[in-house]
Amino acid sequence: VQARHPTKRQRTNLKKRVALGMPHNNSKITCEIGYSETPSVSPSIVRPVSVFSTALQVTTMKSTLLTLHRLCTLLAFFALGLAPINLLTAEENAVTRIGVIGLDTSHVTAFTKEFNSETASGELAGFRVVAAYPYGSADIESSASRIPKYIAEMKDLGVEVVDSIADLLAKVDCVLLETNDGRLHLQQSLEVFHAGKPVFIDKPTGSNLAEVVAIFRAAKHFNVPMFSSSSLRYPETVQAIRAGQHGKVLGCSSYSPCSLEPTHVDLFWYGIHGVETLYTCMGVGCESVSHTSTDDFEFAVGQWSDGRIGTFRGIRSGKSGYGGTAFCEKGIVDVGTYAGYKPLVIEIAKFFRSKTVPIDPRETIELYAFMQAAAESKKAGGAPVAIADIMAQAEKDADTLLGDSLKKAVNP
User: Fold this and answer.
1) What is the pTM of this model?
2) E strands within 111-237?
3) pLDDT given at position 111
């Protein structure tokens, strides 16, 4: 490291840094970095600089390997007394700021811990939950009563709790819409769409099919990437079935816990988990649904256009859990069980980074139509209900829900 007075060109560059507001130290000393067997200048003007440990402490590296060029350049800035410049590439250095809407579900702390972990790596690296708006259901006791608890926990995780969705949107790059009450999702998501922020909407997408249709229609209108899913879509066993590792799926029977919430269509509240598994294995194409309901169980049977049959059993009594069986060309396969939140969080991270929606919206809309048809079949004493009829009514109701909401300016 050789210390010299700056050249005219270096003084000009320093002035530019000052004008642009870049980190600087108006020093009369500059330096050159190089290495050779013998000094290129007299030892009397060489200023020894011991900055190796400091450099490695100040610069947080995602890899322990630094090229000699990167390290030498960093040492040069320390020798100058300038603020260190992070030499990571833009992609390595970028931090994507995540905002959370709704602190009335355990998902918010679970997801935040994954994104904000000091050991986050791979797809989860480069993200941080920085702000949260807490509300949230006002009248579903099981949700509303948990808000104070999750406010405190999020603050402990270093997340700023803000007073409005508008405040949140000004601080973040993308959004986790976690409000447990699906009735609030349409209005909350419209605020996000107007701001042009990519958003993941946790289950249920809405409290009824018309709300789901309206949300997807608005996302498309405002050109904002959005997807919604249960974590039960992403266990490795389910994804292997979907990928065709066992041949074509000829049928599937799934099950999950199925508590009911009077403000939501029956299966939307918790049966969504098992129906998500069913559709991940079967894909789209269901034409009609018939449904049987008792105090302890829900049982929906769907007939697909190619003759396949898929069923969902909702459990409220006895031993419960998540799972099912896929009937495939090459074997009868256990779909596995709940694999935690991390697989879903990884998919959300991929989505936030790429802005590419991982699930065809038609599939998500149809699985909600399946559940809406099941509810209508229940009212009709178990008679089959056509998905097409359910969708036609939902489209009309979505028009009413949206009103003039889609007349605002569209995001580029």
Assistant:
1) 0.78
2) 127-133, 160-161, 174-177, 199-202, 226-229
3) 98
